[in-house]
Specification:
Layout: H1 2-9, H2 16-31, E1 70-73, E2 76-79, H3 80-87, H4 92-124, E3 126-127, H5 131-144, E4 151-155, E5 162-164, E6 170-174, H6 175-180, H7 183-198, H8 201-214, H9 219-243, H10 249-265, H11 271-276, H12 284-292, H13 299-316, H14 342-349, E7 355-361, E8 364-373, E9 376-383, E10 395-398, E11 400-401, E12 404-405, H15 410-419, E13 423-429, E14 433-440, E15 443-450, E16 455-461
Parallel strand pairs: 4-6
Antiparallel strand pairs: 1-2, 3-4, 5-6, 7-8, 8-9, 9-10, 10-16, 11-12, 13-14, 14-15, 15-16
């Protein structure tokens, strides 16, 4: 949304190349699972993005929370049994994760299908052996400074020129176009396609498809993908115009119109391929208007574009460390933070937890910091009567410790505890809960089990 706003406000100052670069940053960032930069410019830390809404399911009951039959949260008594029972009802996260995974497989199949179609198209195409045409392409390669070996194919099975391949790039030209354009017009086509090769546009197009595969449920991501393809074409046209004399601008525009006219007379249906891997020519109006009004950008405009890219890159490659924690963290060391100060915990896992909340047990207040660490919910409990960051961690409650996970069967969890050389010291049973107490790594560990389902509800270190 920021990029679209900047495009609208500074459309006369932005070069098409820099706009396309901004979309490339977005696509790359969506493929990075963990933020590579510190959260100095995080939108979360600046307060521009609201964190997830807190609800009762965010609470994980531990030793302190299960000391009594209910707890008080924002003036409301909630029975412990209800909280545990709700945790083992239909897990919407798992359901949506399954639907998401099925969607990924479906779109991955479409992605593979498209690539197979391209490979079949190449088999049906003929290598161009015309020395005059090949010489023209080689001269264009020198102008664009493409040193890779580029193979030229001619075919009757597509209606628009295209590039394909990253390591061994190929240009495929429709036979109708070869037969109906002159040498200079063919030169324009070669320049355009060679710039796609030089800028690795096919590679970024494939990355865009992978992003759409992973985020298939998000319409904004699809919009970004198709918008970036349009800006890719505009950036490519802009690069061609930079190589031409001003008197050739009109000829280049008429060449584009001529190709579109030939396309309209061609009944070949390659819509799926065109929308996926072939550089789409559907945004003709924008391209023609850009060619008509093209002027080389001044140095201040270029510097401004670079500045915006750097700022978007810094913000986009940042994130909230509480949501995307350091990968150096190991669950085995979680108990190292017992009896450490709140300041130490925040220094390690981020000053901005997913949520902080207060809970009263038997009218004794507790303050809790809630983090998502390596995919597990982790909550640090503190004395709610002390307000400064020096207060010590009383207990740590989590949904995953070593190889024991929430939802795991009791038998499996107890077997893992035994293999990990945890010393069982006590078992306590309530109406609907079972508590198994262990000594592990010089600290105490409690497994809270739902008696009805015989599954692990939470793990507590204290």
């Amino acid at each position: 949304m920021i990029i679209l706003g900047l495009q609208y406000l500074f459309k006369k100052n932005f070069t098409a190349k820099w706009v396309y670069t901004l979309w490339a940053i977005v696509i790359i960032r969506l493929l990075i699972p963990i933020s590579p930069l510190e959260n100095v410019l995080s939108l979360y830390n600046l307060g521009l993005v609201k964190r997830i809404t807190f609800n009762m399911n965010n609470i994980i009951l531990g030793r302190l929370g299960t000391s009594y039959s209910n707890f008080n949260f924002i003036g409301r008594d909630i029975p412990v049994d209800l909280l545990v029972k709700k945790a083992f009802t239909l897990n919407w996260n798992h359901l949506f994760a399954s639907i998401w995974f099925i969607g990924i497989l479906l779109f991955l199949f479409i992605f593979i299908y498209i690539n197979l179609n391209i490979l079949l198209l190449l088999k049906k195409s003929n290598l161009c052996l015309d020395k005059k045409i090949l010489f023209n392409m080689i001269e264009c390669q020198k102008r664009v400074k493409v040193k890779k070996k580029v193979t030229l194919y001619v075919t009757s099975h597509i209606s628009s020129p295209m590039t394909y391949g990253i390591i061994s790039p190929k240009i495929i030209i429709p036979k109708d176009i070869i037969d109906n354009i002159d040498e200079k017009e063919l030169q324009f086509i070669f320049l355009h396609e060679l710039i796609h090769i030089k800028r690795y546009d096919v590679f970024f197009n494939i990355l865009g498809m992978l992003v759409c595969t992973l985020y298939w449920f998000n319409p904004l991501v699809w919009y970004i993908f198709f918008r970036s393809k349009k800006d890719c074409e505009l950036a490519c046209d802009e690069a061609v115009l930079e190589l031409l004399n001003s008197k050739d601008y009109t000829d280049y525009g008429f060449t584009l119109l001529k190709i579109l006219e030939l396309n309209s007379k061609n009944n070949i249906n390659n819509t799926l391929i065109a929308k996926a891997l072939i550089n789409d020519r559907s945004e003709a109006n924008a391209r023609i208007f850009q060619i008509k009004g093209y002027t080389k950008k001044s140095k201040p405009a270029i510097i401004f574009s670079i500045f915006i890219i750097i700022m978007i890159g810094l913000i986009g490659l940042n994130d909230d460390t509480s949501i995307r924690p350091s990968i150096s963290y190991a669950k085995e060391n979680l108990n190292d933070y017992l009896y450490e100060s709140e300041h130490t915990v925040r220094s390690k896992f981020g000053n901005y937890p997913i949520h902080t909340f207060f809970m009263k047990v038997n009218n004794i207040p507790y303050s809790i910091l809630y983090y998502n660490i390596m995919g597990e919910k982790v909550q640090f409990w503190y004395d709610g009567t002390i307000g400064d960051s020096s207060r010590k961690t009383i207990e740590i409650t989590t949904t995953g410790y070593k190889d024991i996970k929430q939802g795991m069967s009791t038998g499996k969890a107890l077997s893992i505890a035994k293999k990990q050389n945890m010393q069982l010291i006590d078992i306590r049973k309530m109406d609907s809960l079972e508590k198994y107490f262990y000594i592990d790594n010089n600290s105490y560990m409690m497994l809270l089990i739902d008696s009805n389902t015989q599954r692990v509800y939470s793990i507590t270190l204290y």
